[in-house]
Design brief:
The protein is mainly alpha-helical. It has helices spanning 5-23, 27-45, 51-76, 82-97, 106-111, 115-122, 124-135, 140-160, 167-186, 190-214, 219-223, 230-243, 252-264, 268-295, 315-323, 325-328, 331-334. The longest helix has 28 residues, at 268-295. Residues 1-20 form the signal peptide.
């Protein structure tokens, strides 16, 4: 997919808005950064004159504008009622993030985007709200709200993707589930959620790049895919198992570190919910892998043809190395 020059300018503006929001010393500056980020992402959504993109951009604008309004209202209440102000600020940031129980808009927006746009929504757009949430961990009430949202996100992200056949909605609920691990990490350790976010961003982006190169949008289209190369039929399942946190792939490393931190902090009940949801998400990752197992049987694909995938071969060695990183360096992280 070739992006015009204007899209690159809006993308740079989007990054600058995120950086402004993170580095601001006041909530007003953080709000300006969030608005710049919002107004830069909408032109990236409507890169083509398409009614679906227009509908998605309108929905995204309304949801984000509602969250921004709550942020302004809560900041105006700070002098009169600081506790209420902080609670409203946290709720608005959870709405911007798409975390449960304010997740209702996230799968719908994901369904209307192209694959490259979903990478931005799942990774860069989460960065600024999560940094701002980490600044709000000042008292026990706010931390309890974050932990409650984390547990709810784990359950909704796991159960919501069970009956989904569309890959973009599956990735959306997967993102909500991984957000629960990052939110629980924010309530404990600022550095840990950054490590988890880095691993999650790299692995999910590699999967989205594979889906984009294959031009598949639902599970049934994987069976009709012409990408019958053994490289594809092995690489995508490995990436999905890595995203699910199955050892010994790379995605298991941040989950293993999080398990250790939660056990040390005696947060056993949230850990049970997070591990249970991880098993459920692993189930619908395996359901995506099933067509690839069938494609490995030659009798099931008699008329399949090989397609030249040299346009995406630049990312393949990097993706392969990324998902086998857990095989290369497991021991130093196990004894951390």
């Amino acid at each position: 997919m070739i992006f015009p020059l204007s899209s690159m300018l809006f993308f740079l503006s989007l990054i600058s808005g995120t950086m402004m929001s993170i580095s601001s010393s006041s909530w007003f500056g953080a709000w300006i950064g969030l608005e710049l980020n919002l107004l830069s992402f909408i032109p990236l959504i409507t890169i083509k004159m398409n009614p679906y993109f227009s509908e998605v951009s309108l929905k995204y604008f309304l949801i984000q504008a509602l969250a921004s309004t709550v942020i302004i209202m809560s900041s105006s209440l700070f002098l009169s009622n600081p506790n209420l102000s902080c609670n409203l600020m946290l709720v608005a940031l959870l709405l911007k993030l798409g975390a449960a129980p304010f997740h209702f808009w996230f799968p719908q927006i994901m369904e209307g985007l192209s694959w490259p746009q979903t990478i931005i929504l799942m990774t860069i757009q989460k960065l600024a709200p999560m940094f701002l949430i980490s600044y709000l961990t000042t008292n026990s009430v706010l931390i309890q709200i974050i932990i409650f949202s984390s547990i709810l996100s784990a359950l909704i992200g796991a159960l919501g993707g069970l009956n989904m056949m569309k890959l973009r909605k599956i990735m959306a609920f997967s993102s909500i589930n991984h957000m629960s691990w990052m939110l629980i990490a924010i309530s404990i350790n600022d550095m840990m959620w950054l490590v988890y976010f880095m691993f999650y961003s790299l692995i999910s982006s590699s999967i989205v790049i594979l889906f984009h190169s294959m031009q598949v949008f639902n599970i049934s289209s994987l069976l009709n895919s012409n990408y019958t190369s053994p490289f594809y039929t092995l690489l995508l399942p490995m990436s999905l198992l890595s995203l699910g946190g199955l050892p010994p792939f790379t995605g298991f490393l941040p989950k293993w570190m999080m398990i250790q931190i939660l056990v040390l902090n005696k947060m056993i009940i949230p850990l049970i919910f997070l591990l249970g949801s991880a098993l459920i998400t692993l189930y619908f990752y395996v359901r995506i892998i099933t067509p690839f197992i069938l494609l490995l049987t030659p009798i099931l694909t008699p008329n399949s043809k090989q397609i030249n995938y040299s346009s995406t071969s630049i990312f393949m060695p990097f993706t392969t190395f990324l998902n086998f990183l857990g095989l290369l360096i497991p021991l130093p992280l196990i004894f951390m």
